[in-house]
Amino acid sequence: MRSLRQILKSAEKNKVAVGHFNVAETSQLKAVFDAARELGVPVIIGTSEGEAGFLGRKQAVAAVKSLREEYKFPIFLNSDHTHSFEEVKKAVAAGYDAILFDGGTLPLEENIRETRRVVKYVKSKNKNILVEGELGNIGSGSTIRKELPKGLALSSSKGAATIRPEDLTKPEEALRFVKETGVDMLAPAVGNLHGMFKDAPEPALDIERIKAIKQALRQAQGKQVPLVLHGGSGNSDSDFLAAIDAGINIIHISTELRAAWRKGLEKGLKEKPEEIAPYKLLAYPVAEVKGVVYNKLKLFNKLY
Ligand code: G3H
Ligand code: ZN
Questions:
Q1: What are the residue ranges of helices labelled H in the chain?
Q2: What pTM, to 2 d.p., does this model score?
């Protein structure tokens, strides 16, 4: 079976993106897996520190690995937004396929120093684990929010709302970060935000900046550095397609899945007020989440 690294190479070549979806329990995992399998496209499962704490790191690895082996299917597990070195160690020991060390809000020098330390440690244990670094503030928390994340503001220029350029990742900093840390993948701040507004569109992505970062990274150590777009909930389909064409290789979605899960559960409880079998009630959130994942994967893989 192809490795995640090989899958990212073909995603780059074919100008598609691999979908990354966060889960905290097995009904979400089932929904994501069923959608990916139906479409026959690779998929990445993410667990944040909170989600991993609920599900268990070894248990998450066992569940994803069992699907990969039983169905010979390219499904991988990422330790998403791992903030501490201790959690990095746990993810390596448990057998994750990829780790995002999130130093995004640290001052640049400290982010470089800490991320480099993580890359060195992970690679000393297992060269095949991919390490992603984060550069820039994209807020935190997959929640329905009422305002922009702290420290970010909208640009005053006319047209679609966008985050101020000074809050976004600079191409030259991205190049320096990748060169000095040795990360395999980079998560930049390009107008993307964690969480989503309930009744308002998300700010537009800065497509020109994605292109400029991609261009700058082409010079890094002569290797291709996949770009990861976090905070995908609420962004428009046209922005996603433009972002993929500009060089994004992985797209993260979580808030929309959480909202779909809750909506499905409420529907199940309403339609079956007497039901007590979890698997019968959970069929509702599975269907809702699967629908969201299916549509995102279709879009990201340009299956239309
Ligand atoms: O790492 C998780 C993602 O970046 C999710 O972001 O909740 O805005 O979809 P989202
Ligand atoms: Zn994220």
A1: 4-14, 26-39, 49-55, 57-71, 85-94, 108-125, 171-181, 207-217, 237-246, 255-271, 278-281, 283-300
A2: 0.97
Tell me how far the alpha carbon of residue 129 lies from the centroid of ligand 1, in angstroms: 21
Structure tokens at 217: 């990274």
Structure confidence at residue 240 as a pLDDT band (50, 70, 90): very high
Are 207 and 242 contacting, i.e. CB atoms less than 8 angstroms apart? Answer: yes
Between CA 203 and CA 36 the distance in angstroms is: 28
Structure tokens given for 60 = 């998450």
Residue 69 Cα, ligand 2 centroid: separation in angstroms? Answer: 27
**What's the pLDDT band for 94 if we cut at 50, 70, 90?**
very high
User: Which atom belonging to ligand 1 lies closest to the Cα atom of 192?
Assistant: 8
Tokens of residue 296, six digits: 């995102």
Is any ligand 1 atom within 6 A of the Cβ of residue 155?
Answer: no
What's the start-to-end Cα distance of the chain, in Å? 26
* Per-residue tokens: 196: 């989503």
Token pair of 169 as six digits: 């990742």
Give the position, in ligand 1's atom list, of the atom nearest the Cα of 196: 8
The CB of 142 under 6 Å from ligand 1? The reply is yes
Predicted pLDDT at 221: 61
Indicate whether residue 233 lines ligand 1 (CB < 6 A).
Answer: yes
| Residues 267 and 37: beta-carbon distance below 8 Å | no
- Tens of pLDDT, residue by residue over 259-269, are 999 999 999 99
- In the block, which residue shows the tokens 């470089």? 112
